[in-house]
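Sample entry as discussed:
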Amino acid sequence: MGESDIFAGLASVLPPERILGSEAARRVYAHDAYTVDRSAPDVIVLPETTEEAQSVIRWCLAHQVPFTPRGAGTGLSGGAMAAKGGVILSTKRLNRILQIDIPNRRLHAQAGVANLKLSQAVAAEGFHFAPDPSSQSVSTLGGNIAENSGGPHTLKYGVTAPHILAMTWIDNAGEVRTWGTGVEGGPGPDLLSVLVGSEGTLGFVTEAWVKLTPLPARVETLLASFPSVVAATETVAEIIAAGVIPAALEMMDRNILVAVQAAFGLEVPAGTEAMLLVECDGSPAAAQAEIEEVYAICQRFGAIELKLAANEAERKHLWTARKKGVGAMGRLAPTVVTHDGVIPRSKLPEMLTFVYEVAEAERLGVANIFHAGDGNLHPCFYFDDREPGVVERVVRAGERILTKCIELGGSVSGEHGIGVEKVDFMPLMFSEADLALQGDVKRMFPISEFANPCKVLPNLKGCVEHQRRWRGAAH
């Protein structure tokens, strides 16, 4: 079907003003934060209720039109890209908090509510939604569910899956389903954990009940500057080896700090090559004991400067480099591609050395800002995509880094999914039997080749143009 036919058909189920089809809109929605692969949708639709979303999906299924769920588009693997055109099903208007149930420590919200707004809605009651992606001010609950997102506080509080109590979703046959009892530990198979992280390939989530976590009685935040990346990474390993599990343990290298200096005037001690942002929380006594041990470890490993927040205002200031880092990368180059591999913490020095070597070999700028505590790397390659051949070098660099993550016993994804970017890497991580089992699990649900096509599992029909074939680049 052509764009005008799709627009006209969907106008029968949605008000026309909530169907976008202009060239500008299609260009904006042609990619997510993984910008080196693009595919424009024919139209973008903005449902406001589960029933409206169901009507759109049923229309797409009846007319064999691909549809792709999308939240804020902050994913890093092309998971929210309309790989085969068709309809982008946006959660932008599914943005209401439906119920707050403090006695049972839970909250009911539509999928398009921004992550941070969940916590803000219950902060006065002493609670928060613990998963906190760095993009939490814009990334949505539905997107967090699709990617099983993490964030700086994942080390202690976990990724999205254990914080979802129930959800309403539309399966790939167009039926509305509700899974979960709304309380933790309900009977029966944990089907919620199958749906969380499935990247919209099993259905479109419209609402969810989330678990609320009490705010800690005390938070201690430390920013430590180091003369080398090696010293910072060795400090990370020692903190965990000492039995301290911080709420957050984040690292930023020199190029991130240069960008934040340029954008926000961040003060960086002379000779700093890396910073660690460490946060410990809990009871006043426990938080203080942990941060004192972290402080001593940082001193032993040669920290140039240690700053301990004395109040909430200082705490927010110390988080500046981590929270603003990726956004500040625009000061270094017009285009940034961020990767999302995972390695064992003990391999951080080796892996970062490899990242810098790859960047030099491919003549690319690279900056590292990541969740050091759980080994979730985010190498950020910065470049000008107008330069001939540079995108190919960026893709090749990413292939080498992700392959190295697997070789070191890690994963090609920590919190941003497989999408289209990493489909070809799945056979490097999983055997044929493993992938067949994943396919069997998927077939337990209604299947449609039109539901977020070309994502997660390899060898999907008609998706070759979005697969950057792995060529053994690391060898």
Observations:
- The chain is about 30% helix and 20% strand.
